[in-house]
Design brief:
Layout (H helix, E strand, L loop, with lengths): L5 H18 L16 E5 L3 H11 L4 E6 L7 E6 L5 E5 L19 E4 L2 H14 L13 E5 L5 E5 L5 E2 L2 E2 L3
Parallel strand pairs: 1-4, 5-7
Antiparallel strand pairs: 2-3, 3-4, 6-7, 8-9
């Protein structure tokens, strides 16, 4: 898709600056959040075992629960531990055809998961060994790997501490 240039780009930058001035509150004026955190993010998968093997064996996210979906008989609902009490969940829906992943308004652009240097290196090695393609260091983005799981779920392994972006602490 073509990126904006010239006056269109400048208008977008001006709009962003206006939104930042109007809505972004810096501490100590920032109000406290009303949420405790992400309990889980849930996606649809096409194959339960393929999804388990990818997330547990390649990425190192332990499977912590696998049950029947309470809303759809025969459907499996399962969770991976992605650290700090956060879960990555999946469902399958036997009998349903699912279109391929599409990046669109209201969809997920990607999920960025914080990992340490050792975990980043180990995951990159396992992705290479499994032939999983990714973007990242080749684009000059040394701290990130971008790829899709077997279901098309867009993931980023991000070598940055939780609550930090571009080296700046955003939240405690």
């Amino acid at each position: 898709m073509p990126q904006p240039e010239g006056p269109a780009l400048e208008a977008l930058r001006a709009r962003r600056a206006e939104l930042r001035a109007r809505y972004l509150h810096e501490p100590p004026d920032r109000p406290a959040t009303t949420a405790r955190g992400v309990h889980h993010v849930a996606f649809i998968c096409r194959d339960v075992e393929e999804t388990i093997r990818f997330h547990q064996e390649l990425l190192g996210f332990p499977l912590v629960e696998i049950v029947e979906n309470r809303d759809y008989r025969g459907s499996t609902h399962f969770f991976f531990d992605i650290g700090h009490g956060n879960l990555l969940g999946f469902f399958d829906f036997p009998g349903h055809d699912h279109p391929p992943f599409a990046e669109t308004v209201g969809g997920v652009q990607h999920i960025a998961l914080s990992v340490g240097d050792e975990q980043y290196t180990a995951a990159r090695t396992r992705l290479d060994e499994a032939g999983v393609s990714y973007l990242g260091p080749d684009r000059g983005v040394e701290e990130s790997l971008y790829f899709r799981d077997p279901n098309g779920v867009p993931l980023e392994l991000f070598r940055e501490r939780l609550g930090v972006f571009n080296g700046r602490r955003l939240v405690d």
